[in-house]
Amino acid sequence: MAGKYDNPPPLPHERVARVLRVASIDGKLLLFIAGAFAILAAYTGDRVGAIVGCCAAGAGALELNGVGRIQNFIAEGVEQLIKSQLLLLAVILIYAAYQLTHFNPEEILSAVTPRMRERFMELGIGEDQYLPILRQTYQTLYVTVGVVSLFYQGGLALYYRRARPTVYRLLNNT
Fold first, then answer.
1. Position 173 pLDDT exceeds 90
2. pTM score, two decimals?
3. Distance between CA 80 and CA 142 in Å, rounded?
């Protein structure tokens, strides 16, 4: 039963404006953050990270291109919004799978600081015991990244897909 304070559904131009706002913010953040990580990864010699960062930044650029196309009354720009999220999702899942299959114990152990070693000793965990803990933490991190990305990027792709008929209807009637 509808209450007297229920809001009516948004008008088509309001919905398209919301899609453009979301896509613009997401695309700019993605381009900036992924680009910065790509540069940082390249600087540290992490080739895989640099490639992944560039691909993710490319997904942000694709999303911003879709925004520009919609703003120029080209309804097919919404397809680029959807593709950008699916591209980013694929990049993240491939990177997470790569990291899960390329665990490097020496690299992880070299990242353990003296303070962390002291803390492990305080907890009664010897040097031979904390590598399995670090491995489990590493694996949990990348599985979590994959699952969160599946929901976030998948959700945004679905949001854009559901807005597609409204975008086409609005822009083809103007």
1. no
2. 0.88
3. 27
